Amino acid sequence: MEGPHPGPAPPSPPAPAVAATLQDVARLAGVSAKTVARALNGEPNVRDATRERVARAAAALRFRPNRLARELRQGARTGAVGLVIGGLENPFYSHLAAGVERALRAEDLELVIASTDDDPERERAVVQTMLERRVRALLVVPVAEDHRYLEGERSAGTPLVFVDRPPTGLAADVVLWDNRTGVRQAVDALVAAGHRRIAVIADRIANFTARERLAAFREAARAHGLGLEPRLLVVDVHDVPAARATALRLLAAPEPPTAFFGLNNRITVGVVAALLTTGGAQAVVGFDDFDLAEALGTTVVANDPAAMGGRAGRLALARLAAGPGLPEQVLLPATLVRRGSGERGPAAAAPSRAAAALA
Known about the structure:
This is LacI family transcriptional regulator. Keywords: DNA-binding, Transcription, Transcription regulation. One of its GO terms (molecular function) is transcription cis-regulatory region binding. By secondary structure, the chain is of the alpha/beta class. It has three domains: about 20-65, 434 Repressor (Amino-terminal Domain) (Orthogonal Bundle); about 80-175 and about 305-330, Rossmann fold (3-Layer(aba) Sandwich); about 180-300, 3-Layer(aba) Sandwich (Rossmann fold), CATH 3.40.50.2300. It has 14 helices and twelve strands. It has helices at about 20-30, 35-40, 50-60, 65-75, 90-105, 120-130, 150-155, 180-190, 210-225, 240-250, 265-280, 295, 305-320, 350-359, and strands spanning about 80-85, 110-115, 140, 160-165, 175, 200, 235, 260, 285, 300, 330, 335. It has a six-stranded parallel beta sheet, sandwiched between helices. A six-stranded mixed beta sheet has the order 7-6-8-9-10-12, with helices on both faces. Helix 5 (about 90-105) packs parallel to helix 13, helix 10 (about 240-250) crosses helix 11 (about 265-280) and helix 10 packs across helix 14. The chain is elongated and about 85 Å long. Mean pLDDT is about 85; it is low at about 1-15, about 70-75 and about 350.
């Protein structure tokens, strides 16, 4: 007895798409690869009929010239500018990159972005990769502690612009915030509201921005005659969960602070989260604006990372146009924006709820 006949074999899956090459276009157009390259590059001495045939073949094959490879073969730098940033999850960097990109767009330059994840050991490898791509200029938000490794590149004429933090051991252009003025405005506002016990939470102390803002707080606090309790000055807090845990611990103390000052956007988000958990009425001021800060009524020392990126991009473009010169330092404003949370007066903490949340 015959068994059932097998049905027709299923169709073979389509072959994976492979990007067309210059040689593929040449075969379809019936010309040499060299003629294809000359036609697509708009070079003279190619007949109109041949140029049209090549264009039709390229369109049929969806061929796209490798601009990067062509530029490197010609020994030139690419049409790209590199930007090395910290963690991609931080909205500050996305706004910064948008500002750089808008500045470069006017000059038909592309932006290539790489992240160090705020790891000092990774910075040098990421920068080296950018330079191997022969970027025309390099913008860096630095995390390493020594930038002398870039001295050769600077001497060779590659524009280097450091953003948000200065380099160490290297004379180069830098775009910074006026951190000291911003911190002073925040402390003045909290003291005017009646606060004497202010908790300050800062990022990793190896970070220039954290060090400068903390030093500015100490200076402003001394000017107001505030006591600086060591337990209220907390450093090396790098992300939102750590900031929330730190704020909860401070709120659960026998004498909790009456106000918090978060020295970057992620820290302030963590502090706000802790207060929402405990129902605490402590005042809050943050350095750097963040999404939903306005909706939450959070007072901040606001800056504009897109403006910082744009200024850094224009500085790199100026170096490309005019060549090297004396290093320039640009200081951008940071201004207190009052939204309510920083204007609250001293409030009784709720240690029981804070202790429960901490547990």
